[in-house]
Amino acid sequence: MIEIRKGIRLRGKNEDWRVINVSQNRVTVVDLTKASLNISQLLYSNIIKSIKSNDFYIFDENVIDLNNINFSKEAKEKFEKRKKAMNMMEQIFGPDYLEIKTRSSSRIINKIINECGMSAPTFWRVLGNYLKSGKKDYSLYDKSYFSKSQRRGSGGGRKLENGDSAFHRNEEDNTRMRKWMNKYLTATSKEYTLEYCYIKLQDEYRDSNGNLGEPGTYPSMRQFSYFINTYATPEQLEAKKTSMLEMRNNKRLLKGDVNEGVYGPMDLVEIDAHEVDVSLVSNNDYHLVVGRPIIYYMIDRETRMIVGFTASFDNNAVIAMNRVYECLIDPKSELLMRHPNAPKYAIPYGILPERVMTDNGSDFVSKEARRCARALGINFCFSPAGVASLKPIVERSFGTFEKMIDPMMHKAGLIKKRHDSDHHKKAVLTIDQFRIMAEDFVYFHNTTICEGIPYTKDI
């Protein structure tokens, strides 16, 4: 006697069905030939006739024993989450699931997805696999656990060069990999590179004689790298590339604007130094390359105007700071001669700031720099280390200056960020000529209206 039961598989010439429910004279089946979830009902009597006429036959399948497979902790947690979602679907839409495609069911299904912490694509994929397997628990695990001969654990990668399958890890392997992943991500020493941590991971698979087994008996470098990219958070990976300080600085909540706490023009100015990507030649010998120039800009935070500047070869030097102070009181006659029609406000002079915002460079924190500031009645405000965004205006001015001179300096000594940069051969400018470019940029900067700045009556 032919009996149609739940879970059996019916195959025909062009059909492949999985029975998910039998009630009275109707059989609910899911189509296995389609990737999407297609549920329909057939008459019990028609199926019996098709089997007797050999149009359909009951396909025997191998039984998968889950007790012989060593699942990882993550796989078990994932299974429990998926099993919970399937149990909730069974209580609401089971046993035939004919109403899951209706409009009224979408709100209920979305609630189940959110409660189980699953994405919508993952939920529908898991539900489809679950019903197509005949509601078997093995469908809730990843297919990698049921590969050839059901090897130890999960985590197989691409095949080895000799054609053998890759290493499959178990819970002990995951613990070892997580140990060296944490050391790689949290170590402050530069010694803990990805290659170094992988070598240390290999050491844990050596025998008592210190010999490492054949490839496939321990994780490959690709598997270790994939494990890190899978289980490390984006914040950890970003901090490893730069630093935790810079990562937190880039992701911190920004409130207010740079004018907060500023009480008028020249109340607070920003000052910083920048090494320009240009090679210069000597004033006395144009064939002798002498180095890269250093520019100092002092910008008023309220008006965004450059009030002091200098260009020289002095880096992290108090003498460069003193030149900036001299520029504050200098009428800048040479710059005025090159721009005779410049408005009065374009080239300010004769005014000392109340406060100066700087970083922790040696040219700003030295005793000599502080002595000069006290003599001029200027107070220094130091920004925390690694937080250049607290001096955004002067930092942006350096970028604007570099972008302006890049087209002109492309064949005149521009230092390119590549191995075949020939800036030494193309260098033609002297420090005096470069200083004129830096001064002309000051005029351009101070006469250009910046959009979006709230102008006040004082400005």
TrEMBL record:
SUPFAM superfamilies: Ribonuclease H-like. Transmembrane segments: none annotated. Residues 158-169 have a biased composition (Basic and acidic residues). Residues 261-405 form the Integrase catalytic domain. Residues 149-169 are annotated as: Disordered. PROSITE patterns: INTEGRASE. GO terms for molecular function: nucleic acid binding. GO terms for biological process: DNA integration. InterPro entries: Integrase_cat-core, RNaseH-like_sf, RNaseH_sf. This is Integrase catalytic domain-containing protein.
